[in-house]
Amino acid sequence: MKIVIASDSFKGSCSTVEVATAIEKGIRRIKKDAEIVKIPVADGGEGTVDALVLGTGGKYETVEVIGPLGNKISASYGILEGNVAVIEMASASGLPLLKKDELDPLKSTTYGTGQMIKAAIDKGCKKIFIGIGGSATNDGGVGMAQALGVSFKDQDGKEIGFGGAELARLTDIDTTQLDPRIKETEIIVMSDVTNPLCGEKGASYIYGPQKGATPEIVKQLDANLKHYASVIEKKLGIDVLDVPGAGAAGGLGAGLVAFCNVELYPGVEKILEVTGIDRHLLDADLVITGEGRIDSQSIYGKVPVGVAKRAARHKVPVIAIVGSIGEGAAEVYAHGVTAVLDIIPKPMSLEEAMDNASSLIEQAAENVMRVLSIEKTVSRLDFLNRKELDIHENGSA
């Protein structure tokens, strides 16, 4: 029996690699001789670098960059075969880098993300994958562009500072000092969202609150991004306002489109393509995927559905092991997921579940294999019963 394990991380508790290891342990309890292929997967957010580095045999590089609030931090990115880089913006400009009381989208910057792009180019990388989930920023990618040489000036000709609040001062954009190597570099942006830059479904309204924005600040940030988009169109002739995905990572999607000539892709699709999951699905009997929570939003670029769509092409059943099942989760069944199993066997707090996630995932995987064993046993008994009935009716073996 060949089983492909391709799960997202359970954020805050288990990485994609740890999830896959736990699932394998559970499988081996029942099916010791199973052929198991583990493929790390992510959706463009946390775990993207690990998924591609570990999934393709790449290596890690570390660089010192400016963090979301202007402090110096160390950030890691990956280099894959062929000198292809993979970057997570969250490792330089993300929510995990800040404590709850430090969140401030008015001041946070994507400058460090631009420094990581530059570092990869300095390494000679001509192709860069960038996962832009999990940002702590709402600056439209201005910081990123500043790190690459773009100048953003106010009405007095002075460079604006870091953060979403500074966009209100913007009157001019000068790209003459943009690193010329950007034009020679293929940059592929991976994201699990398609939000526009502004409006009720834009970067500020949808994601601002989780970055520390009050309702009043949300309105301010949205107005600033709209102003920013108007200056981009006026000075560069590029309309980023309604580009699907422009609102990803606090508008970083828009900044990358405007200054780096990128293409935006669903994160999970690109990662599955790069890791070559299809060749493993050709002769697979089962796929086990998963994520921390599955709900109605899971059909929009999340890992389990992305994996299930690929598996469906090869008619391989997919079981999703998840931390919790939310409202609308049944929608995933129309997208290739065969069954969903949560890891919680009894009432427990979220903290307890997260602390014991690895063992709970392992137990859930064991339960999956036990159910499959029952199915085979029932099928075998049905076959024997039908054979015995045939003997009685026909009088011969």
Automatic annotation (TrEMBL):
Superkingdom, natural source: Bacteria
Signal peptide: none
Keywords: Kinase, Transferase
Pfam families: Gly_kinase
Protein's name according to its UniProt entry: Glycerate kinase
Family: Belongs to the glycerate kinase type-1 family.
Record has Kinase as a keyword: yes
One Gene Ontology MF term: kinase activity
